[in-house]
Amino acid sequence: MWDEDIDLLVDAARAGGGWAFGRLWEELSPTVAAYLRSRGVRDADDVTSEVFLAAFRGIERFEGDGRAFRSWLFAIAHHKGVDAVRRGASAREVPVDSVSDGRMTASAEEGALKSLQRSEMFRLLSMLTVEQRDVLLLRIIGDLSLAETAAAVGKPVGAVKQLQHRALARLRKEISGDPITPDPVKAIAWMR
Amino acid sequence: MNTNDDDLLAALRRAENPADRRLAELLASAPGKEGRSPHGKEGRTPRASDALAAFLAAAISGVSPLTDTDDQSVIAHDTYRLEPVLLAQTPTRSSQMKPVSAFSRVLKLSLLAKIVLGATLAIGSVGAVASTTVLGQTGDDIVIASPATDDDGALEVDDEREAHVALAADEAAAQVAADAARDAARAAAKAAKAAAKKAAAEKRAAAAAAGTETDTDDADDQGEDGDDQGEDGDDQGEDENDSDDGDESDSDDADEPDDEPETDD
What we know:
The structure holds two protein chains of two kinds.
Chain A: H1 3-14, H2 18-38, H3 44-57, H4 66-86, H5 96-99, H6 108-125, H7 130-140, H8 146-153, H9 157-175, H10 184-191
Helix pairs in contact in A: 1-2, 2-3, 2-4, 3-4, 4-8, 7-8, 7-9, 8-9
Chain B: H1 8-13, H2 18-28, H3 50-60, H4 72-80, H5 90-133, E1 135-138, E2 141-144, H6 154-217, H7 219-231, H8 233-239, H9 243-264
Helix pairs in contact in B: 3-5, 5-6, 7-8, 8-9
């Protein structure tokens, strides 16, 4: 969906247009749910609902366009995800099957390849620290800029840039044949 | 490679390092990224929670969940695009509204019950105040109707007050009747005494008249009666009250003087 359409939806929702809330939910909830699942939140659907409910109830106080609303939404999702993991709502294993969407795959082979790639991606992400993983997920799934990511995680832009740099360096090493032995304790802790 | 770009994946894809391109390929498989296009959805819509479904249902039904509904731009947008929004929990949304409707029904019933209770209390209090202020006067007795000690209602208070008034009226009527009967008895006694006195006077008068006639016809009997008077003093006293006995004694006495001389002879 174009950002201009999101701008229109955000303006209408901020003015109280009931139809706009449903459209925003339809357009943005899959990405937010995918971010939460990738972060290891077990009840990602429920947490996604909490995120949108909080955003809709506070939309009168929100100022900005559609892009800013998206950034604000992922900031809420980040905090809700942190709370969910703290209260034990994190997934014990990566929900690969639950996040796959058969409607988007062209064939079974492509689906299997996606699944393998996703498994590999989650394996790589499990090698990162929580902060490095959060930055990468917000940058890739949330499609946020460095400044928006910094606002979402509550850190300076420089710190976010440093976290991203270290995360990419570590993943690059793993992929280039200089594998980094994953820390099983960290991986299990992230899974839980 | 400039990873400070807004689009990190695009920067990784443009990188010269094959590892970066491989990394971009792996990260592109992240959920929410596949099939993403400007014109399409970004994956499956998650299941909406009950609270969010209720919020969206209220918003779509026209009841704005926000407080600010006076903005005219809302109306413009609503008339501009009115189309149903498909939610992930559409089948369960109707069942989720049942507790809300039941709750509203309970609220209505409780409001009705409050109104009825208030009206009942108002009527009862008015009746209690009226019963404490109304005074009833029957004859010389003043009846003060007080509230009933039991809590059966204002109707019993009214009945009790009416019973008090009726009882007082009955007692007054009975007393008047008793006084009238007593007066009538006294009057009857007086009339009987007067009649007795009158009869005695007439008897005396008759006796006096009869005495003058015997003096002229039976001169001997009178002298003998004088003896009899001395002998039968008690009988004479009795004759005053009994005229018949007097007559008999007179007749007997009148015969005896005639007989005694005959026996003496």
